[in-house]
Structure formats: C-alpha cells, structure tokens
Design a protein that fits this description.
ChsH2 rubredoxin-like zinc ribbon domain-containing protein; mainly beta; two-stranded antiparallel sheet; OB fold (Dihydrolipoamide Acetyltransferase, E2P); globular; 7 strands; NA-bd_OB-fold; ChsH2_Znr
C-alpha cells in the first residue's frame, strides 16, 4: 500500500514515519528526517483554509492539513479564511493529484 495507489482509489491517508512519527510530505517511502520507513495513517483529517481564489465561478483554496502541510483544493461554496474543512473527495486525474474539501 502506497500513497499514490490509495489516492488513485479516492482514499486519503497521511504518510507518517514509523520511527520518529514525523508527517512526510510530499509523500515518500522513507522519512526525510531519519530515513525510517513510512506507513499510511488513516483518519478524518481536519484542515484550515489559509487563502482562496475564484475562477469561472469555481472556488479553490490553500488548506493546511493537521497544522503541518498544505494542499490546493476545490470547494463547492464560497469559503472564508480560517474555515475548518476536511477532504471530501480526492484522486489522481491525468497524473495530477486533486482534492475537494467541505
């Protein structure tokens, strides 16, 4: 089980080092802190909107997940800075990661 194969199936996991417990982002097989192996942590991870933009009536936002790393995500309604969100949909489309939050 690796991050990309799970993401391709629409499942979001956070890669975490089995030795030092550091979140490894961008996802990798080995920790960039201690070179320990990485496992995938499952959960309903919360994020906070740091900024957002609108393009052709679609909203996009930068979300900080678990106070650690940031992703760009789509959101269906007008967001506000500081809003708590979680990933509702994710995957890989044409080789690119995509995330949707609510």
């Amino acid at each position: 089980m690796n991050f990309e194969s799970e993401l391709a199936q629409g499942k979001f996991f956070i890669p975490e080092c089995t030795v030092c417990e550091k979140i490894v982002w961008p996802p990798a097989e080995f920790c960039n802190n201690c070179m320990g192996t990485v496992s995938l942590k499952k959960g309903d991870f919360m994020g906070k909107i740091l900024e957002y933009s609108v393009h052709n009536e679609a909203y996009f936002c930068i979300v900080e997940i678990e106070n650690t790393f940031r992703i760009m995500a789509k959101i269906s309604e007008k967001p506000h800075i500081g809003q708590d969100v979680k990933i509702s949909k994710c995957g890989i489309n044409n080789g690119n990661y995509f995330f949707q939050v609510n």
